[in-house]
Q: What sequence folds into this?
């Protein structure tokens, strides 16, 4: 393996559960009224479908514009002091020490991604960052991963993508990358397919172990 490529939302920082909580608060709904298993299918791609789904859950007529404005304010408040998920910093540090190239592929916009990476002091780790600003179609379309791989100057099979969402894993696999799923409280309910390894947290295994496991999977033809 020559590179690792990270998703952002839900993988590096748990922005996804904070957004789910924001929608529940905004619509005054309990989790049972907005099942996470259904909500999770809209994660990791363009937000348009997600907001339309939330709008249909509202008991009162509400525009998508209003939903976006109010949920953004709540969401931003919950992320004032961001914390990276367990093991993220260790993976990035180990990748850098091992001489691996490090990329990031996110369906969010660059400002959103760079703001949090800056607050977490993680921005300097990345050799290539591709976001919604760089492609016509976000995940599950493979363009984001294809762009990162091209800029890193490697073959897709020489990289491991770390993803938390179904849409993200589809994009990585379609682009030809090996894929490790790191679930969170939202995406642990999804039915993933075609991945090489699944973790609940990067604390479960260190990066070198993950690379060994994925390498063996590749040699066996998965």
A:
């Amino acid at each position: 393996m020559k590179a690792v490529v990270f998703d952002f939302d839900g993988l590096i920082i748990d922005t996804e559960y904070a957004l789910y909580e924001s929608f529940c608060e905004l619509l005054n709904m309990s989790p049972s009224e907005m099942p996470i298993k259904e909500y999770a299918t809209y994660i990791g791609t363009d937000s348009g479908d997600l907001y339309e789904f939330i709008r249909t859950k509202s008991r009162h007529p509400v525009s998508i514009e209003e939903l976006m404005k109010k949920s953004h304010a709540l969401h931003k408040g919950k992320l004032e002091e961001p914390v990276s998920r367990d093991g993220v910093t260790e993976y990035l540090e180990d990748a850098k020490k091992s001489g691996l190239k490090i990329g990031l592929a996110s369906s969010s916009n660059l400002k959103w991604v760079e703001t949090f990476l800056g607050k977490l002091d993680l921005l300097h780790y990345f050799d290539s960052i591709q976001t919604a600003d760089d492609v016509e179609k976000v995940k599950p379309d493979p363009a984001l991963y294809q762009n990162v791989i091209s800029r890193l100057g490697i073959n897709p099979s020489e990289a491991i993508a770390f993803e938390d969402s179904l849409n993200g894993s589809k994009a990585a696999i379609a682009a030809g990358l090996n894929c490790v799923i790191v679930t969170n409280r939202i995406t642990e309910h999804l039915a993933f397919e075609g991945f090489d390894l699944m973790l609940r947290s990067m604390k479960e295994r260190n990066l070198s172990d993950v690379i060994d496991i994925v390498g063996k999977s590749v040699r066996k033809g998965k």
Summary: The chain has two domains: 3-14+83-219, 15-78. Residues 15-78 form one domain. Strands lie at 3-6, 101-105, 128-130, 159-163, 178-182, 197-199. The radius of gyration is 17 Å.
